[in-house]
Fold this sequence. Notes:
This protein is an alpha/beta fold. The chain is built from 14 helices and 18 strands.
Amino acid sequence: IPRLGFPDFWTDDGPHGVRPDVLWDEWEQAGQTNDSCVAFPALTCLAASWNPQMAQLYGKSLGEEALYRGKDMILGPGVNIYRTPLGGRNFEYMGEDPFLTSTMVVPYIIGLQSNGVSACVKHFCLNNDEEYRHQVNVKISDRALHEIYLPAFKAAVQKGHVWALMGAYNLYKDEHNCHNEYLLKDLLKGKWGFDGVVVSDWGGTHNTDQAVHNGLDMEFGSWTNGLSEGASNAYDNYYLANPYKKGILSGKYSMDELNDKVRRVLRLYYRTTMAKRGHGLLCSESHYDAAKRIGEDGIVLLKNDGGVLPIDVDGLNRPIRPNGHNKPNKPNKPTTPTAKPTVLVVGENAIKMMTVGGGSSSLKVQKQISPLDGLKARLAGKATVEYERGYVGDVTGNYNGVTTGQDLSDNRSEQQLIDDAVAKARKADYVIVFGGLNKSDYQDCEGHDRKQYGLPYAQDKLIEALAQANKKLVYVNISGNAVAMPWKNQVPAIVQGWFLGSEAGEALAAVLCGDANPSGKLPF
Length: 524
């Protein structure tokens, strides 16, 4: 509104980085060349650090990237409770413990909003699974609601002083949560004293009367419902657009509700676009360093029998005698140069970019260091690092027009992939398997839940075969969810590696090689 000095207000998806720009009312790419970002570790990893200082660093760094990109609100963080390990969006949240989540979300918000960029805590509330998220009517006791599912939202409001909050798609007590009378009007704005704005999830508004009376301040979507049908540039058709205006002019709605909504929106402007702000930073060394530190702090050592970790290649250098047999040399007899130990890396997740996909948290990154490249760089000159695929999962590597540029196709059969990996494993000094889930549908991904607790893509078969072939086996689980490990007694070392973003390879290599202490603790 130029007459009043109000500039545009831009929102952007988080919570792990600033999402690339899309077209005005579509989810396809706008074709910008300056909208790459740093991908920070997923919030499951941040929570696993159990370190509020890391949470504040995370929020501050993300806010600086958003400010540079001209974004005024980041749609995150997410604090829905991990209710089942099949939840497709669990990787975006902070685990199952309400106290841990409450403790970690507050400094994240403070760090982010210190840049004059609003956080938008989501999804309020009970959005704990993805399947049928638009229709499910959650049944829950008052005690469970207040002891488990609400504390993190309450902390975000009363301790983090968050400026915005997003309603959830699901229903509670037969009302959609983007205009739920009890949750938004009575609890959030009433008992908790929230003075910010309530925004709808995209297409989460269903009724003008409820939106007007029950506490929704800003309606968002694409097309008319943001989901399946509508018309281009259909903003005037939104429930809080022309239908609301018509109701005001006809006397159906009073000015009281409108004034309350407007006051909250104005307050949001005064805190962000009309405040004195800096310029921010994009893809800076400090942000990559923050991503690496957070990743290292959150990686969890689940098992380490026999001290397999950290990888000790220096202790494996062995002299090569002229006849090729590695027998001890006689005293005072010179030896030829030592043979470098071999570290075999196995698994699609060692090479697959994990910043693209997963739903609205998908990012277009300036760079991403894979686990394989991270280990190669760390062990350069000390060991020979070889690679075998082991299994084939998702070879696509694109989401909403962002592509990884990777061609992960492999025509070998399931058994041939395993046999090839086992053949190399028999000769290796270490075998490190990077497996787990990915950000494809029915894995760690918005929109659907997992269909199985076990590992996909015949990984169990692969890991059991490798365990028979080499006793120095390390399994690194890349996921935001727990998985079944029926072979755990056969594998001496197991690490939970999360989705670590741009610095994934360096953070994992630092932990596996003993440069960083794996001090993370599971948040579920």
